Amino acid sequence: MSLTKIIESILFSSPRPVSLKLLYKKLPEFPPEEIGNALQELLREYNELQRSIEIVEVAGGYQMRTRIDYREWAKRFVKEKDVGLTKSVLETLSIVAYKQPVAKKEIDTIRGVDSTRAVKQLLERRLIEISGRDGDAGKRLAFRTTDKFLETYGLNSLEDLPTLKEIELLEK
């Protein structure tokens, strides 16, 4: 059996990104270097073939996804998960993403309104999580984004978020 095809089948069947660390753990019969090489070969193959499916690095792992050029066609057959966030919830999520870890009081101050409902929705959707306590002798909860946030927005890490300069350039 080809290790490349084994990894391809794992990526195809996994609903979540698969990290190299998890591949090493679940495939102990193969040396880590072989696993890394097989994954790189698979990435090269998918890039060279320019198929409608690609393998992307997201949320610290690898995942098969429909290439953006084909998403509209695929949507006709598969109901895409709609994150469905309101403007206020997206504002709150943006604040958490850029200022994490951040206390709710700071979120409220930045937004100028109470953010309890927005924070609750983000926690329920597992886009943010409690990261500990912050300020006032540790009385306030602080929040940060989750791996599900990275996966949902196609980010490998928080460094992939656009900078404020990049956002300003888009607005012009």
Which range best describes the helical content: under 10%, 10-25%, 25-40%, 40-55%, 55-70% or over 70%? 40-55%
Number of strands: 5
Structural class: alpha+beta
Distance between the termini: 54 Å
Identify the quaternary structure here: single chain
CATH superfamily of the largest domain: Winged helix-like DNA-binding domain superfamily/Winged helix DNA-binding domain
The shape is globular
Please give the radius of gyration in angstroms.
19 Å
CATH architecture of the largest domain: Orthogonal Bundle
CATH topology of the largest domain, by name, is Arc Repressor Mutant, subunit A
Describe the structure.
With 172 residues, the protein is of the alpha+beta class. The protein folds into two domains: 73 residues, Orthogonal Bundle (Arc Repressor Mutant, subunit A), CATH 1.10.10; 85 residues, Orthogonal Bundle (Arc Repressor Mutant, subunit A), CATH 1.10.10.10. It contains nine helices and five strands. The strands form two sheets. Strands 3-5-4 form a three-stranded antiparallel β-sheet. Helix 5 packs across helix 7. The protein is globular, with a radius of gyration of 19 Å. The relative contact order is 0.11. The model has no long low-confidence stretch (mean pLDDT 86).
